[in-house]
């Protein structure tokens, strides 16, 4: 037997040339500066839209809270007037103060004064008007209007009219009108 040496497998490293990794005119890998700026611009526009939507939602929530407070306050006053219909006759609110007050119904006028103060605490730049009219027989009709504004306004129109758009008497405000039989 001849002594042949065992075959050894040898692996020679391949030579890597720079030409094989960089191809001129081929697709480059990675993100360029222009692509990054465009992506940042698109993201900024989207975030501005989300911010504007959040501000509108917050404003609508505040206005809904004010309208809810006006409904609760008006119901509270009407229920107080119903407790004593005789004392309620002839009472009203004009120019931010109770009118038609006399000895027997002074307690109701004091209650209206406290109610007006609470109305000013609940609603911004609020004004109220109340008229109680005697109808046929023993029926009394109460007509209560409450108006409020986000910003102060010297020309306060308290009467809510159906022809006013959405019963709103001013931009950035609201108006509530309640008519009921006492």
What is the approximate shape? rod-shaped
Q: Structural class of the helices, strands and pairings?
A: alpha+beta
Helix content: 40-55%
Strand order of the largest sheet: 3-4-5
Subunit arrangement of the protein:
single chain
Instruction: Work out the strand percent.
Output: 15-25%
The mean pLDDT is: 81
Number of helices: 4
Helix and strand element order? HHHEEHEEE
What's the structural domain tally? 1
Q: What is the β-strand count? A: 5
Uncertain runs are 165-170
* Whole-angstrom Rg: 38 Å
Q: What's the N-to-C terminus distance?
A: 130 Å
Major β-sheet profile: 3 strands, antiparallel
Give an overview in words.
- The protein has helices spanning 18-21, 33-83, 85-88, 106-122, and strands at 92-94, 97-99, 127-134, 140-149, 173-181.
- The protein is of the alpha+beta class and 182 residues long.
- It has one domain (33-181).
- Strands 3-4-5 form a 3-stranded antiparallel beta sheet, with helices on one face. A two-stranded antiparallel ribbon has the order 1-2.
- Strand 3 and strand 4 form a beta hairpin.
- Helix 2 (33-83) packs antiparallel against helix 4.
- Keywords: Membrane, Transmembrane, Transmembrane helix.
- This is Prepilin-type N-terminal cleavage/methylation domain-containing protein.
- It comes from Salinicola lusitanus.
- The chain crosses the membrane at residues 37-57.
- Pfam families: N_methyl (PF07963).
């Amino acid at each position: 037997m001849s002594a042949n040496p065992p075959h050894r497998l040898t692996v020679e490293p391949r030579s890597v040339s720079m030409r094989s990794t960089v191809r001129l005119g081929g697709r480059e890998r990675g993100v360029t500066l222009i692509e990054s700026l465009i992506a940042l611009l698109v993201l900024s526009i989207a975030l501005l839209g989300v911010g504007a939507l959040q501000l509108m939602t917050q404003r609508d929530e505040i206005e809904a809270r004010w309208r809810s407070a006006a409904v609760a306050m008006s119901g509270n006053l009407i229920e107080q007037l119903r407790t004593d219909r005789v004392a309620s006759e002839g009472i009203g609110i004009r120019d931010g103060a109770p009118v038609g007050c006399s000895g027997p119904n002074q307690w109701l006028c004091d209650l209206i004064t406290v109610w007006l103060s609470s109305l000013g605490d609940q609603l911004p730049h609020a004004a109220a008007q109340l008229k109680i009219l005697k109808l046929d027989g023993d029926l009394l009709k109460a007509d209560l209007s409450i108006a409020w504004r986000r910003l102060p306004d010297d020309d306060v129109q308290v009467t809510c009219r159906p022809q006013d758009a959405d019963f709103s008497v001013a931009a950035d405000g609201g108006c509530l009108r309640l008519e009921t039989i006492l």
